[in-house]
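Look over this today:
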Amino acid sequence: METNQYLDVFLDESREHLQVINDHTLRLENEPQNEGLVNEIFRSAHTLKGMAATMGYEDIASLTHKMENVLDLIRNKQLQATTEVIDIIFIAIEYLEEMVEAISNGQDGKKDVTELVARLDRFEKGEAAATAEQNKVEEPEDTATVPVNLDEFQMTIIEQGEEQGFAAYQIIVELSDESILKGARAYMVFEALEDKGEVIKTIPATEDIEEGNFDNSFELIFLSKEAPENFEPLILKVSEIRNVVINRVRFHQEEVQAEEQEFAVKEELNERNPVEHADSAVSNHQPAKTIRVNLDRIDDLLNLFEEVVIDQSRLNVVADGIKNPELTETVEHMNRVSSDMQSLILAMRMVPVEQVFNRFPRMVRGLARDLEKKINLEIIGADTELDRTVIDEIGDPLVHLIRNSVDHGIERPEERRNSGKAEEGNVVLRAFHSGNHVFIEIEDDGAGINLNKVKKKAIDNGIITAQEADQLSEQEVCQLILESGFSTAETVSSVSGRGVGLDVVKNKIESLGGSISIESTQGEGSIFSIQLPLTLSIITTLLVKSQEETYAIPLSSIIETVLLQKEQIMTSHGQKVMDFRGQIVSLLDLQEVLAIPELEAVEEEQAVVVMKKGDKLTGLVVDHLIGQQELVLKSLGDYLGDVFAISGATILGDGQVALIIDPNALIK
């Protein structure tokens, strides 16, 4: 069987199922009696096993098979969901994630799972088997008894079966809205029940079920010697099954046509539970209309639209020059439509930060155990959306910051007790929108940053002098831990202390056009706040001129623009400065920074763009302010490489190329 064409689907669905298993296993540790959680984990593991076996990934299939066996024991109350059991399941999840990622990187997905399978096998064999009582035919007290229309032949079969110890059950199987192979799922249900009894009747007819000609549910009249709790799990193992309802059957004879029988049964269902029936009808007529689209295609669409934005700017220039009313009206309408298209395309690239946040509960659980700490992780705003490009890059910095909070921030239980705190420390991972930015905060109620210790380490490392240290504010001292090679860990561990510090985090965030700031109160905790742009492709800028060159400055970094007379520019310690609302702000001349040739005399009045980076301000001196404009950000390419203070380029409406200034490189 050729499986390459299904590889992308396999990878996407495998990651989804692994995330479900991970999330529900975390909950199961706190809710060991929650059977619903176990069932969800079991279903995802079973589906993953089936997909892996079909694709030929035997190591994944064998590992998930053993996971299934352990989960089945938990479902049947033969094994408790203890910490040891949860630990082994998490190790299995890590193995599976590694194998899936290896496959996505073009490898064969093989991994030595022998030892882990053996450990799972020991859990499985250490518990008693199901007792013979499970094989008795008993009607549970909460099993409903419903009337069902049967013809004489079907009624005779059931009567004879009851004389031999069989019982008749009505089984209603409901598929998920996303199911596209309904006939195949129904066939798998029949196959699962094959050894447990006999199907007497189906609604709708068997032929219609096999062809998928039914809504999202179908019914069986099933004759079996076993109790319903024995064959219900078999049905739920089939993927894309949303719900199963099993009722004991009582019947009466009516010679009616098959269509009338089906109608009668549905009417009885409606009368028995009208609310449930109504909800089912709504869901059947409002299916989720989603498709999987390769991210590369969305990128291609965005690239094409970027060309439209460039041509639109040029068209605006042409329309302004011609002054034709009809052309102007058409261009204005095109601008509105183009703006809506831009919002729609960018929205297609937006994904919730939940995709990144989901990995952290398990990570914090493991770190807390390794460090012998009690830590509660709270996640807020996981549905906040970010551009996919940013999402792909922000994961590693967040891992580093959370590990930092867990290791350096949260104290050990005895230390927290002595400080009058609860033994369990709290780490809050928070995301929210603000303007055209997304903020991600990592907050803990730990010991906070020891400012004196940070100063001493910074002086020892030659980052600052003792005199400079005395002049720093508390906030500036906190920012020192973001400097290269800075680490206050007293010992080297698997968590920290190797000198690979938060400077890596800072550099990565700034490369994404973002910034990071720190607030800390000793003894109370710290907050690391990351500011990120919503998107990296189309940005709003302020166009400025220096000599004959046009440049663009991202509007997100601009506080204000100011017109200064030459006499208002002062000098302090050899540095040009200005008075900005009582605050001394250093000035940089764009012409000097980029060595722009002087072709014309500088006017007496100069424009200053006041830019921010965290709490720091810098004024960029330019010759003229042109105006605000949305631009397409294009990279400079491999040939030019990194150019100081330039983050990219764009094409203006008149066809001229303008460089885009990187404020982060200028503000020190």
Summary: The longest helix spans residues 295-322. Confidence is low (pLDDT under 50) at residues 127-145, 252-288, 491-500.
